[in-house]
Design brief:
It is built from 9 helices and 11 strands. The chain is of the alpha+beta class. The protein is globular and about 60 Å long.
Length: about 325
């Protein structure tokens, strides 16, 4: 029988292999946000391999939790940890339920926008015109696309056009989608993106690529649904982030980590984190933390929280707020 040390070593090797494979195919995602201003990329979307998905995309809902550095790291730079929103799996989300209440108070709306769920959409297809000088292209020409709400709105609205007779993913009568990058107010703007007006069939080379590599099941690239234990950790991390705390690898490293940090495999740490997750987060002095993650044209759909709240851009610059007062209101509301 294998010892506990052997089991842990084997699990770590599997995790390392998984991370290596993920990094190796990381360039499968086409970084359209790297297009230079005024340039256009032409994409040809393909259908999802999942026969139960009626669309050729998958919606992704995430929270970005900023922390004032990493505990024990002298650099003390702001880090952002992404965690899934339970509404992505059709379930109630305790974090979103809390943030929704903030929009009932105008003084909390800024904080509500900061912690509102971030939408993106997963597509796949071919890059028919690539204005980016990419290095290390993947073997398969079937790329994945992470599309922002701004671009997705253009994709969706055009599908409602009665003059479009066929699905854009149709093999013979499909349409290309042109992503054109502009700027507005100092941020990337894609409102000039559009569907091509002329139908074109897939080329022989594209059809051969589909036969050789196969289509992706887009749902495979969504985060796994959190377990009850992981959900408790997400709530704890959310509360700690709001309180302005640092990211604590000992409490959360086995679950969700900042970019570039490997997850820990220590089961005792995981159990400790799960236990502390059920306790209220300690109240601490918080400072306004700017989101250091590069955000490209993503639109915040916080308007659905309350009918009076207007949609705002995720990447809108944050203005210094009376953070102490905001945190006090949030604590009072929770009580």
């Amino acid at each position: 029988m294998a010892s506990l040390a052997d089991i842990r070593a084997r699990l770590k090797a599997q995790e390392d292999k998984k991370n290596t494979n993920f990094n190796a195919e990381g360039n499968s995602v086409f970084p359209h946000w790297n297009i230079e201003e005024g340039a256009t990329a032409i994409l040809r979307f393909l259908e999802d391999a999942d026969p139960d998905n009626p669309y050729f995309w998958k919606e992704r809902l995430m929270f970005r939790l900023p922390f004032n550095g990493i505990k024990g790291d002298p650099n003390n730079k702001t880090v952002v940890v992404q965690v899934p929103c339970m509404e992505m799996y059709g379930e109630q989300c305790p974090v979103l339920n809390e943030v929704r209440t903030w929009f009932k108070d105008p003084s909390l709306e800024e904080m509500g926008r900061k912690y509102w769920k971030k939408r993106s959409y997963l597509f796949q297809g071919f890059v028919r015109q690539n204005p980016i000088n990419e290095e290390g292209l993947p073997e398969s020409p079937i790329r994945r696309f992470v599309i922002s709400p701004q671009i997705f709105t253009l994709v969706k609205n055009s599908l409602l056009d009665p003059e479009i007779e066929h699905l854009p993913t149709d093999v013979e009568h499909g349409l290309d989608f042109r992503i054109t990058k502009g700027s507005k107010g100092g941020y990337a703007d894609y409102n000039n993106s559009s569907w091509a007006r002329k139908e074109t069939p897939l080329t022989d080379e594209e059809l051969e690529a589909i036969d050789k590599y196969g289509l992706h099941t887009l749902g495979d690239f969504l985060p796994a649904k959190p377990t009850p234990e992981q959900l408790k950790v997400i709530v704890e991390m959310f509360e700690a982030s709001v309180e302005g705390e640092q990211y604590d690898p000992d409490r959360w490293g086995a679950y969700y980590t900042p970019p570039g940090m490997a997850r820990t495999r220590d089961t005792s740490t995981a159990e400790s984190a799960a236990e502390s997750a059920s306790k209220p987060a300690p109240k601490a002095t918080a400072k306004p933390a700017k989101d250091v993650e590069e955000v490209n044209e993503t639109v915040n759909d916080a308007a659905e929280a309350v009918s009076a709240a207007a949609s705002v851009e995720d990447n809108a610059p944050e203005t210094p707020a009376k953070t102490q007062d905001i945190l006090k209101m949030i604590r009072d509301r929770q009580k």
